Amino acid sequence: MSEQTNITIKGDNTIVWGTDGQFSLGYVQSVKDLETGDEATVDDGNGNAVSLILFNARHELEAEIVVKSGDTLPRRGDDITIAGQAGTCLDIDKQWQNKQAMKATIKAKKLAFNT
Q: Closest Cα to residue 38, out of 17, 60, 20?
C-alpha cells in the first residue's frame, strides 16, 4: 500500500481589499499572470517572414477567490494588485454564492508602460 501524501499550502493565501475604511478578506484559490502583447511580422517581399516586432506588452492577470457572501468585490476600473502586479480591474465573474460564501474570478490588465 502506498503512503498518502498530505498537501500543505505554505505562506499566506489571503487577499485583502477595501475603500473608505471598509475592508474585505478573501481566500485565493488560484492566480494566473500572463505576460503577453501584440506582434507583427515583416516579410522580405517574397512572402517570407524575416523579422518579428513585439509591441503593446502587458500582463493579463486573473485571480479566483472565495469571500463572504456580503462582501463587496472590486469594481471594473478599480486599481488592484494580483500576484504582485498592479493593474486595472476589467471583469468580475461571480461563479456561485450561498448564505456564507461566494466564489468569484477577477481579471485585470497592466500595460507595460504603467509602472
A: 60
Measure the CA–CA gap between 22 and 86, rounded to whole angstroms: 20
| Domain regions of the chain by residue span | 14-111
- First CA to last CA across the chain, in angstroms? 53
CA distance 26 to 67: 4
Cell matching residue 67? 469571500
Q: Which of 26, 12, 21 is nearest to 71 (CA)?
A: 26
Cα angle, residue 85 at apex, residues 80 and 91 outer, rounded to 5°: 45
pLDDT one-digit tens code per residue, 39-79 = 999 999 998 999 999 999 998 989 998 888 888 888 898 88
